Every structure is written in C-alpha cells, then in structure tokens.
Amino acid sequence: MQLNTLKRKTPNQKKKTIGRGGTRGKTSGRGTKGQNARAGHKKRPQLRDIIKKLPKLRGYRFNSTVDKPAVVNVGALNVFENGAVVTPASLFAMDLVRKVDGQIPMMKILGTGEITKKLTIEKCVVSASAKAKIEKVGGEIK
Q1: Is residue 102 exposed (0-12), middle (13-18) or buried (19+ Cβ within 10 Å)?
Q2: What is this structure's pTM?
C-alpha cells in the first residue's frame, strides 16, 4: 500500500447550486450603474426616434408631384428667334427648364407675359390664354 494509491471511503460532496443566479455575484454580469444595469430596462429603438421627428402631414400625399408638367410662361419664349420650333428639348437647351430625375419633363406653356416672335410649338401642353397670344402673333401649335 502506497500513499498515491489510497482512495477515500466517501467521495467529496459537490456543492449544490440553486436556481437564483448561482455564481453571479455583485453586479450579476450587468456591469456597473446606468440604464442597462437596472431591472426591467428597455432601450428605445433608434428608428423610432427618427420616425417621431418626421412631421405629420394632413391629407393624401402619395406621389402628389408625379405627372405635373414643368411650367414656362409665354413671355419667356421671346429668347427664341423668329420662326423657331419650340420643343421641351429646345426649352432645356435655352435653360428655361431643368431636368427632373435626369429627364426633360413634360412642358406646359402658360399665358403670362407678351410674345412678339412667331413660333411653332410642338410636344407641349398649351393653356387657352397662351394659345390665343401665340396665334395672334402668327405662331402655330402642333
């Protein structure tokens, strides 16, 4: 019989753990202080804060700007030469209208101002007062 071959008659008792947290003491794995250390803490989602800052708008506002033509007044058409053809592309070339989403928009010619040049207007919507002024000078609308 040697010391290294001796065995206990009864093995060591393992310490029983209970279901109240076991080995987590002091801060129980929550760090120290602050909102996260408190019981029942709930952090507000960041997206909710962004949504709450947006203004509420009344009415039905789904795609309200779609299909609205760009507007040019008759008085602005005097930059063209006599007998010129006015199209949305030529209006863009003269810097009378900007592109919308990378495309030249539909055009509507309104009757504000006076026209002195004889012009041919194509591919544009024309108001009744603008049509009268253009035809009075001798221009035409196609």
Answers
A1: exposed
A2: 0.54
Task: Collect all residues with Cβ–Cβ distance below 8 Å to 48 and sequence separation of at least 6.
Answer: none
> Does a structural domain hold residue 42?
no
- ∠ CA 89-94-100, nearest 5°, is 55
- Work out the pLDDT band at 122, boundaries 50, 70, 90: very high
pLDDT tens by residue, 26-63? 888 888 888 888 888 888 889 999 988 888 877 766 66
| 124 φ, ψ (degrees, to nearest 5) | -130, 145
- Single-letter residue type at 74: V
103 in any annotated domain: yes
Range of the domain at 137: 70-141
In a domain, 89, yes or no: yes
Backbone conformation region of residue 34, classed left if phi is above 0, alpha if psi is from -120 to 50, else beta: left
* Residues 81, 94: Cα–Cα separation, whole Å: 12
What amino acid occupies position 17? T
What whole-number distance in Å separates Cα of residue 56 and Cα of residue 54?
7
H or E stretch covering 86: strand 85-86
- What total of structural domains would you count in the chain? 1
Give the CATH number, domain containing residue 127. Answer: 3.100.10.10
